């Protein structure tokens, strides 16, 4: 099997990680493109003695750290403010991408204990986040209830639980939320994507999509989510995504 064939199944999830790091589809996908260009330019330099997914993430993270160092050297404090700190990287790698603390430590060039400390620090930051109002767009009652419970446990309020596109848009226009959690396929066969696009024509709001088929929304070929959670989800994954979305405070579809 060629190197390209080994890496291809992991690219959608690398895009998810890069978008969550940057808060932007455009910037995240650009990081992925540069990573792939680097691998293509020097395929012999790609490690063959480890899992291909691990090697792929390592290549992107090395680029990420190199960019951080360049920004620090150039004194670009404004840009550094948009770079996720290492604590959030540790949280995303473990809670969202599912790496073990050992593998995340290898990726971040630190020990397992430091990864665990960084992730704990990130969770502590979540507790200090400004509270906001959340609109949940989800037509499966049990999932909606679980999301509502999680959101309230984090200290946020829930403005509404909508099950169709029309309900979601009407609710958002009545009481503008500070965050949206949206399923893709809704009760009347309408689309959570369409509902969010309708909202974003009126105002800007961070959005996290929740879907059982993430690879369909991580192609890099069209406007796609910056924040995306896979069903079935872990509560820690939702917490990490909410923290990162509120950290950037951007709309899901970033130009």
TrEMBL record:
| GO BP: any one term | phosphorelay signal transduction system
Q: SUPFAM superfamilies per the record?
A: CheY-like (SSF52172)
| The keyword Phosphoprotein is annotated on this UniProt entry | yes
Pfam family for this entry, one = PhyR_sigma2
The record places domain Response regulatory at: 133-246
Q: Please provide the record's keywords in A-Z order.
A: Phosphoprotein
Q: Which domain of life is it from?
A: Bacteria
PROSITE patterns for the chain = RESPONSE_REGULATORY
Q: Which residues carry this modification: 4-aspartylphosphate?
A: 183
User: SMART domains from the entry?
Assistant: REC
Tell me yes or no: is Phosphoprotein among this UniProt entry's keywords.
yes
Q: InterPro entries from the entry? A: Bact_response_regulator, CheY-like_superfamily, PhyR_sigma2, PhyR_sigma4, Sig_resp-reg_PhyR, Sig_transdc_resp-reg_receiver
Protein's name according to its UniProt entry: Response regulator
User: Which taxonomic lineage is given here?
Assistant: Bacteria, Pseudomonadati, Pseudomonadota, Alphaproteobacteria, Sphingomonadales
């Amino acid at each position: 099997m060629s190197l390209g064939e080994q890496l291809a199944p992991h690219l959608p999830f690398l895009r998810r990680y890069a978008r969550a790091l940057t808060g932007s589809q455009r910037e995240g996908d650009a990081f992925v493109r540069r990573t792939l260009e680097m691998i293509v330019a020097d395929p012999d330099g790609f490690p063959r003695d480890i899992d291909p997914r691990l090697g792929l993430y390592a290549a992107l993270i090395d680029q990420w750290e190199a960019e951080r160092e360049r920004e620090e050297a150039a004194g670009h404090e404004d840009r550094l403010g948009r770079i996720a700190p290492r604590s959030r990287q540790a949280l995303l790698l473990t809670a969202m991408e599912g790496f073990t603390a050992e593998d995340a430590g290898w990726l971040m060039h630190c020990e397992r204990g430091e990864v665990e400390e960084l992730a704990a620090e990130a969770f502590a930051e979540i507790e200090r986040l400004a509270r906001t109002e959340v609109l949940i767009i989800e037509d499966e009652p049990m999932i909606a209830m679980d999301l509502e419970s999680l959101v309230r446990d984090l200290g946020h309020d829930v403005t509404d639980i909508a099950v169709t596109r029309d309900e979601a848009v009407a609710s958002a226009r009545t009481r503008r939320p500070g965050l949206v959690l949206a399923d893709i396929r809704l009760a009347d066969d309408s689309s959570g994507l369409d509902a969010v696009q309708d909202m974003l024509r009126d105002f800007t709001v961070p959005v996290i999509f929740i879907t059982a088929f993430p690879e369909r929304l991580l192609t890099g070929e069209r406007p796609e989510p910056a924040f995306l959670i896979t069903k079935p989800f872990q509560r820690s994954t939702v917490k990490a995504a909410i923290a990162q979305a509120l950290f950037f405070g951007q709309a899901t579809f970033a130009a």
